């Protein structure tokens, strides 16, 4: 095996004198240079190793260098191939670009030309490796019930991955409809408790006088109507996860009992005289600002600190980039299959409306809209007139590729006209790509976003052209 501390550069050159010259050019570079004098030797090396860069002479004594390039291309080898060509075969070198060649250099060339080309090829390999690592580790478009490939959701997935293995309490915040129960369920499914019960309790949906019984259970005769002993959520969730949704709606008296349960791991059923033990992982959620509730005197500060150990904030749908269309397309197909309809896509103007809407009800509202369309209409493509109000009346977004209308002249004393946010974003991305000579991964790194985000935005803008 080759050492991996330095990237490997494979030089395929049958001329010993030229190989020595190229070796001298690269002597000071932090690479491991491997020399092969024939196509057969190069192919044998490639069968065992994947160099970062291949410097490939097209004219070899036993085969055409193009055959080696095609072999690398067909097998998807992660190599940046640089073609070394004589003046008369520049056209051939250009053809080689169709098979994935990174660049070509024409003989004779000096040390600077070779060094710049090799460094560029290595930089491309590094960026490609970073992009692939991101896609493999973080570039998930679905996760335990979530749908979303945006950077905001990748951060949520990573937080769940980190928090799931612990027993520490998780406090989920987010607007209504962002998927707080989905998040709690994902934490449970990702945790060592996944084979134990997951019990969800909505503190806002249960009358206050029954809430204590719902959490802790009751014995027979504990109150009017208690005809038999009943287990509460605490007993049902033993060994697993208890999810308390809308925790800020809980009565103050019950908050003190919950605090004692969290601290001691023991609880008493309503009407019982003996305490019971339970091993529970607590996850809670609210669509309010929990600290504001503490300051307003509606939520106990000591309970807040007990619960707010690992906070996870779910982003609203309007901050999730292209996730709107990802979710909409997925559920359009799913609901169409359930209802026996033929819908399979959205018309372009409909996608513009969906992308431009603020979605105050978040994912829940989006799913309701898709279900409404599928149930009430027929066809293969969803058009804007099929959308329920106010979406059916919304003006589609201006196509991203179109030039905005020229602004009317304004007096020098006035502030410049405010440009649409999508246009400022488009200009920033295009300028970054131009500054990086078309290298999108490098532009993404400088913009501190993922390359996949830029590719999706470019695709969306082209689709709107």
Automatic annotation (TrEMBL):
Boundaries of every Sigma-54 factor interaction domain copy: 146-375
Compositionally biased spans, kind Low complexity: 395-405
Signal peptide as annotated in the record: none
Presence of keyword ATP-binding: yes
Top-level taxon of origin: Bacteria
Keywords: ATP-binding, DNA-binding, Nucleotide-binding, Phosphoprotein, Transcription, Transcription regulation, Two-component regulatory system
GO molecular function: ATP binding; sequence-specific DNA binding
List of residues that carry 4-aspartylphosphate: 57
InterPro entries referenced in this protein's UniProt entry, alphabetically: AAA+_ATPase (IPR003593), AAA_lid_NorR (IPR058031), HTH_Fis (IPR002197), Sig_transdc_resp-reg_receiver (IPR001789), Sigma_54_int (IPR002078), Sigma_54_int_dom_ATP-bd_2 (IPR025943), Sigma_54_int_dom_CS (IPR025944)
Swiss-Prot/TrEMBL GO biological process terms: phosphorelay signal transduction system; regulation of DNA-templated transcription
Disordered: annotated span: 395-414
Annotated Response regulatory domain residues: 8-122
The protein's name in its UniProt record: Sigma-54-dependent Fis family transcriptional regulator
Organism per entry: Methylogaea oryzae
């Amino acid at each position: 095996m080759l050492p991996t501390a330095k990237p490997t550069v494979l030089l395929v050159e049958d001329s010993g004198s030229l190989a020595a010259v190229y070796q001298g050019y690269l002597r000071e570079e932090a690479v491991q240079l491997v020399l092969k004098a024939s196509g057969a030797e190069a192919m044998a090396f490639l069968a065992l190793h994947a160099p970062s860069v291949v410097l490939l002479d097209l004219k070899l004594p036993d085969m055409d260098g193009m055959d080696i390039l095609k072999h690398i291309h067909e097998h998807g080898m992660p190599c940046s191939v640089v073609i070394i060509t004589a003046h008369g075969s520049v056209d051939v070198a250009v053809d080689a670009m169709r098979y994935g060649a990174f660049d070509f250099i024409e003989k004779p060339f000096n040390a600077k030309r070779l060094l710049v080309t090799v460094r560029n090829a290595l930089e491309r390999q590094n960026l490609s490796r970073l992009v692939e690592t991101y896609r493999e580790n973080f570039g998930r478009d679905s996760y335990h019930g979530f749908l979303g490939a945006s950077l905001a959701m990748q951060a949520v997935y990573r937080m769940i991955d980190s928090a799931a293995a612990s027993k520490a309490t998780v406090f989920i915040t987010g607007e209504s409809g962002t998927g707080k129960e989905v998040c709690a369920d994902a934490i449970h499914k990702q945790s060592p408790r996944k084979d134990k019960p997951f019990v969800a309790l909505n503190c806002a949906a249960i009358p206050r006088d029954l809430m204590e019984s719902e959490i802790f259970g009751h014995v027979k005769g504990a109150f009017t109507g208690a005809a038999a002993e009943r287990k509460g959520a605490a007993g049902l969730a033993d060994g697993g996860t208890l999810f308390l949704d809308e925790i800020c709606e809980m009565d103050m008296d019950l908050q003190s009992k919950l605090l004692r349960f969290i601290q001691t791991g023991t609880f008493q059923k309503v009407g019982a005289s003996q305490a019971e033990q339970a091993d529970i992982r607590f996850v809670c959620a609210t669509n309010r600002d929990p600290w504001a509730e503490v300051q307003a005197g509606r939520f106990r500060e000591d309970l807040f600190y007990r619960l707010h150990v690992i906070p996870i904030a779910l982003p609203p749908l309007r901050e999730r980039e292209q996730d709107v269309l990802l979710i909409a397309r997925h559920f359009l197909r799913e609901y169409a299959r359930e209802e026996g309809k033929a819908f399979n896509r959205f018309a372009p103007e409909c996608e513009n409306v969906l992308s431009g809407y603020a979605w105050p009800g978040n994912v829940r509202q989006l799913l309701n809209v898709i279900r409404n369309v599928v149930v009430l209409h027929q066809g293969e493509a969803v058009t804007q007139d099929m959308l329920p109000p106010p979406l059916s009346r919304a003006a589609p977004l201006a196509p991203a590729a179109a030039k905005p209308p020229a602004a009317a002249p304004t007096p020098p004393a006035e502030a410049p006209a405010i440009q649409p946010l999508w246009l400022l974003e488009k200009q920033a991305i295009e300028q970054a790509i131009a500054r990086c000579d078309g290298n999108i991964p490098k532009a993404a790194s400088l913009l501190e976003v993922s390359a996949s985000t830029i590719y999706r935005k470019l695709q969306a803008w082209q689709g709107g052209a």
